Structures are given as structure tokens and as C-alpha cells.
Recover the amino acids of this structure.
């Protein structure tokens, strides 16, 4: 295993090669290390930390990120991102992170250009690249985002080791993915759902702390109407016995019963979607980045506050309808006038008769009656 000192030197050298840049900075262990390495390699002047602020950012995360950036002497800006304006993000298929990361990086790149910076970097590490449920990495690759941790080969354990070597407060910070990662695939992402997950996690954490249970990892999963509280397996029995958790989760906006389970990172990615299971089919992945938004608009549902009626998004269907990747029968090389094989009439099929109406062409019986 490579020593933290050697990894730190390699990371610093890599940031020096990239030069002046903006860092997609969430305040987590990965992006914090990228920011710290950039400041060490280039000095604070040509480095800009940019944090995306939206409904998916958990309460308290921005303040902690700002404090760490200030301790490093780095310039820190925020940019308002609008992930909820993207149909693919709201539809909440397994590639939701692609649309989220696309919005974040597009917004970050605009801020970087305003400050004379062309390069942007993310905190993608080697473990992320090996994870099959990381479609957001494709969004970064398409936009030419640098991945210094991955370039040097740092896995999560290495990130923590180097961060501890540099005395970064984030060296042992638990992973804090966006709030949308708590919503079961197939359940539409809305601002109200994100807010109730945030309220529920804050309330449950306070109750656990009051009972003397200091959990490192806590998730309140939105399963549609009900919720599932996940804590580390060692704390599960104690958490079940804490009074008031069910009431707190209900008070946050959940109507169904509360489930309990041992914490598992990425648990919802391994669970079947609640709605529209065809979103999970990998054959649609080539559409991402070109007509992905239009396709996922087909699957989008609007939740009525009155009666929960779901309506299909017809406008987006008109935009996507006829695209050869989604509807092979609409390819221009099929059918009359398409430049491909001509249509051939076969007995037993319908063909136009008088007035343009269709009539059934019946096969004639054989002479021998068979």
C-alpha cells in the first residue's frame, strides 16, 4: 500500500499540472481534499471553491463547507442550481445523478468562466469509478472535468489517510450525499419530498443524540409514503427503543409506518424502483446527454395535492416521439419513402381498399381442402 505521504505528493503534483481551476466543492471529504491540494500546489489565488446550493443540500452542510474553505484561505462562492427544472432528475430513474451532476457542473463552469478559469475539478475517487451506480461520472467526463483523486488512484481510504495527514477536519466525516439519494427510484423528486427528508433526519438525529446514541451514518429513506430509518447495525436495536422517532418522522411529513434497517450505502440503488420499472433498462443509457431529458419527461408524473392523480407529460412526449433510439420503428430508413426496403404486402395483412379504408385480405383455401 502506498504511504499517505507519497499519495499526498502525487496529488499535489497533479493539481500543479492542471493549473488554475474551480473545484466543485461540497464540503465532503473528497472535494475538501481536492481543494486543499489545489491550494498547496497553486496557492489560494488561482483556486476557487464553488458550492452548489439547491433543495437537495442538507441543512448545516453549507456552513461547515464555508468554514473549512476559509481555514484553507481559499475563495469560496455559492451558485444556485436548479436540478428540479430537469425532467430526468425529477423522474428519479437510476441515472438521476447524471442530470444532477450535469446541472451542477454547467452552473459551476459558468461561474468559473466569470472568474477567468477554464478548468474545473471534482472529487471523484477511485472507488467511485468502480461503483456501477455512479452515472454522474459520465456527466463530468462529457464536460471535461478533471478528477485528480482518480488520476492519482486514491480510493476512499486513501482520501481519509491523506486528509488526516494534512489535519483536515473532514478526514473522518461520514459521506453526505445529496438528499435526493434518499428517495426511492421511481418516486418523483420534488422540493417537498427533499424538505421532509431533511426535516426527518434532523429530528431523528436530535432524538438519538438525546438518548446518548451518536450515530455516524443516518438516513431517512423516502419510500413513497412511508419512511425507513437506517443507522449502523451496532446502533439498530438501541435506535428502535428510542421513543418519539415515529412521531418525529410523521411530523416531518410522512404518512406511512416507519421501518428500521441497518445502514447500507447506496441501498436504494439495489432496490427495485417503486414506479416505472422500465427506467432501469440499460438499453436507454445511450440516450443520456442527447435526448435524456425528453425521454424522462415521458415518464414524469405530476402529483396532485388533492387526490394524487398522475398525468403523463404529453409535451415532452411530442419532443421525444420519433427518435430512432427510443422508437426504432420511426427510423427514416423504414417504410415508404424512407430510402430503405419498400413495404411488401403479405397475405393475411390489412391493405387499403376503397376510400382509404382497410380490409382484411383472406387466404384462398387450397384446392385439396387442406
Amino acid at each position: 500500500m502506498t504511504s499517505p505521504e507519497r499519495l499526498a505528493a502525487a496529488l499535489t503534483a497533479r493539481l500543479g499540472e492542471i493549473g488554475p481551476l474551480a473545484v466543485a466543492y461540497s464540503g465532503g471529504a473528497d472535494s475538501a481534499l481536492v481543494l486543499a491540494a489545489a491550494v498547496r500546489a497553486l496557492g489560494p489565488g488561482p483556486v476557487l471553491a464553488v458550492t452548489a446550493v439547491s433543495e437537495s443540500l442538507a441543512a448545516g452542510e453549507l456552513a461547515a463547507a464555508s468554514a473549512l474553505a476559509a481555514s484553507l484561505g481559499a475563495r469560496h462562492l455559492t451558485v444556485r442550481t436548479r436540478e428540479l427544472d430537469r425532467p430526468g432528475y425529477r423522474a428519479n430513474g437510476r441515472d438521476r445523478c447524471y442530470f444532477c451532476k450535469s446541472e451542477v457542473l454547467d452552473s459551476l463552469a459558468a461561474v468559473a468562466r466569470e472568474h477567468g478559469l477554464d478548468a474545473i475539478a471534482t472529487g471523484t475517487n477511485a472507488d467511485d469509478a468502480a461503483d456501477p451506480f455512479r452515472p454522474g461520472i459520465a456527466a463530468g467526463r462529457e464536460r471535461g472535468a478533471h478528477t485528480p483523486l482518480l488520476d492519482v488512484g486514491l480510493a476512499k481510504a486513501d482520501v481519509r489517510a491523506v486528509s488526516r495527514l494534512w489535519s483536515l477536519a473532514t478526514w473522518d466525516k461520514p459521506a453526505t450525499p445529496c438528499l435526493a439519494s434518499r428517495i426511492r427510484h421511481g418516486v418523483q423528486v420534488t422540493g417537498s419530498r427533499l424538505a421532509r427528508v431533511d426535516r426527518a433526519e434532523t429530528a431523528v438525529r436530535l432524538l438519538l443524540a438525546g438518548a446518548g446514541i451518536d450515530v455516524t451514518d443516518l438516513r431517512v429513506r423516502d419510500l413513497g409514503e412511508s419512511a425507513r430509518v437506517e443507522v449502523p447495525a451496532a446502533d439498530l436495536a438501541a435506535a428502535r427503543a428510542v421513543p418519539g422517532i415515529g412521531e418525529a418522522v410523521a411530523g416531518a411529513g410522512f404518512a406511512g409506518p416507519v421501518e428500521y434497517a441497518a445502514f447500507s450505502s447506496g441501498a436504494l440503488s439495489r432496490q427495485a424502483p417503486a414506479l416505472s420499472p422500465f427506467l432501469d433498462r440499460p438499453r436507454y443509457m445511450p440516450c443520456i446527454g442527447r435526448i435524456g431529458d425528453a425521454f424522462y419527461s415521458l415518464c414524469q408524473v405530476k402529483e396532485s395535492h388533492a387526490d394524487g392523480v398522475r398525468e403523463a407529460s404529453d409535451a415532452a412526449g411530442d419532443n421525444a416521439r420519433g427518435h430512432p433510439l427510443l422508437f426504432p420503428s420511426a427510423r427514416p430508413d423504414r417504410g415508404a419513402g424512407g430510402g430503405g426496403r419498400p413495404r411488401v404486402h403479405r397475405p393475411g395483412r390489412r391493405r387499403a381498399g376503397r376510400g382509404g379504408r382497410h380490409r382484411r385480405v383472406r387466404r384462398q383455401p387450397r384446392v385439396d381442402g387442406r
